[in-house]
Amino acid sequence: MAQPNPKPNPNPKPNRKRDPRPVRTDEPPTLRSFEPATGRVLGTVRANTPADVRAAVERARRAAPGWAAVGPAGRARAMREVRFRIHGRLDELIEVISRENGKPPAEALTHDVLPTVLGIKYMEWLAPRALRAERVGRLIAPAFGFSSRIDYRPFGVVGCISPWNYPLMLSFLGIIPALMAGNAIVLKPSEFTPGVGEEIREVLEALPEGVAQVVLGGGDVGAALVDAPCDKICFVGSGATGRKVAEAAAKHLTPTVMELGGQDAAIVCADADLDVASSGVLWGAFLNAGQACCAIERAYVVESIADQFEAHLLEKLARVRTEGEGFEIGPITVARQKEVVERHVRDAVAKGARVLAGETDGARAPKGSLWHSPVVLEGRSEDMALFREETFGPVLPIVRVRDEEEAVRRANEDGFNLTASVWTRDRTNGRAIASRVVAGTVTINDHAATAGAPWGLWGGVGESGYGRLYGELGLKEFTVPVHVAENILPRVKRLWWYPYDDATVRTLRAVTDVIAAPTWGEKVAAARVAARSALSALRSKI
Ligand code: NAD
To answer: Does the CB atom of residue 214 touch ligand 1 within 6 A?
Structure first.
């Protein structure tokens, strides 16, 4: 069983209260498994050291060639075993995710476990098809004496670093495509969800020795993984840490995928179905207590329907269970995140935001727990922290706008979107607006759900990151595309070899004219020159 050890820590440290950061002076280092709903420490989990990380990367390096040689179909069969193991441990997984995250078990199932198994299943189907060598330049390559194909080869060892908010799904987001592409992986999950980290380790044991390892620890362990070095890094986390990781990776020229934060915008058009839009925006803002990179952090609502929209949304929020048995919006997971949320709300209220729902003094959290009531605000000023930084908590600012034009402008200017949404009854209009919103994903009449859609893609623009996960793009993110070009006339020397005599230059000049000349007359004349001079150029080759 990979449950966090329920025994008390034999070396208790001075009580840091609600912040389960690694206890670095313990021997061996440990991580606390913490329950934000109650403020209880559930147990401790053995952490790894930077030296362990280097050893894990070495083991992965030894295992990688064998795993690559298995081929995509064999790897798909092996990943199916991982999926079966997850299924076999469904209840344990839901329990530990729900406890360490403070999310309702229903969210642990639908937001973490379900997208993970769907992602594996989809990739089992996709990878053997998408990783086939691809013939390219079928017409043009032979004209230059080549047959060309692109091979998709693995990098070797991929280091994956994941955050705490969807600890299972966001770990698998990187490791599924990395493994299916033929790489060995070393995963460093968040120090705030060590029990989930242990569960992941357990299910990955279905794979051959050394192919998929989990190292547990805080930022120092993550930094050691980047510095090992690996052959590719897949980082999911905050922009601030992402920058550090990208800098450290650059030292080794290690390519990176950066899946960072978001301050997603929802645009509620004048013709939106207000019942659907208010339900969808409510969920999109408060899922996982707003601790989703793709949670709505700004709702731009067209003035003419804003009163009705707000009335619907507030009435529905009042029906969502926000505390006690069967809660649907849980506490904040991490103490430092609660501080950010409180600061943003205080700042917005001080700068004139109107509180439509929720308590804004942070007084709701009993006995070391991290509860924070869901807050709906209205109003905006340029200097509000809400619009300048990611909040990552249960706060929904509503901004009334004159029309959809203003909504698009503000969606693109007030903050940065990992994803965004447009709410309208008119699908043509919805697509037109969506095409103008700067984001990695734009959804029409839904929000955030594509985080569990493995057929699409997942990735940001600008501050929300770069690189793609999910789908064929996500799979190929973990491959090195190699052009294998074959000379189809191996007994004939090439025109572009030595010497560069007059016939050679004349022929290649004529080829250039055929490609670039604007008129058919010039092209035909050039083709004749090329045909006449090519033979004598070839005869002169040394
Ligand atoms: P974080 O950046 O603090 O930590 C993420 C991971 O990086 C953790 O495992 C942490 O231990 C590790 N880490 C810390 N310092 C490191 C270093 N110097 N080198 C290497 N690794 C290091 O983020 P968090 O608080 O765990 O997660 C919340 C953030 O993640 C939010 O900004 C959220 O928007 C973002 N996020 C993005 C996505 C996405 O898909 N784009 C998904 C979920 C969360």
So the answer is: no
- 100 closest CA partner among 375, 263, 332: 332
- Taking the centre of ligand 1 as the mean of its atom positions, its distance from the CA of residue 156, in whole angstroms, is 23
pLDDT in tens, 192-206: 999 999 999 999 999
Compute, in angstroms, the gap from residue 162 CA to the centroid of ligand 1. Answer: 6
Overall pTM > 0.70: yes
pLDDT for 335-393, tens place per residue?
A: 999 999 999 999 999 999 999 999 887 656 677 889 999 999 999 998 999 999 999 99
Nearest-atom index, ligand 1, CA of 240: 2
* Residue 461 near ligand 1, beta carbon < 6 Å: no
* DSSP conformational letter for 3: P
> What residues have CB less than 8 Å from 35, skipping those under 6 apart?
41, 42, 99, 100, 102
Q: Per-residue b/e over 357-375, b at no fewer than 16 CB within 10 Å?
A: bbebebeebeebbbbbbbb
Q: Which strands, in side-by-side order, build the sheet including 375-378?
A: 354-357, 375-378, 395-401, 296-302, 264-268, 419-423, 441-444
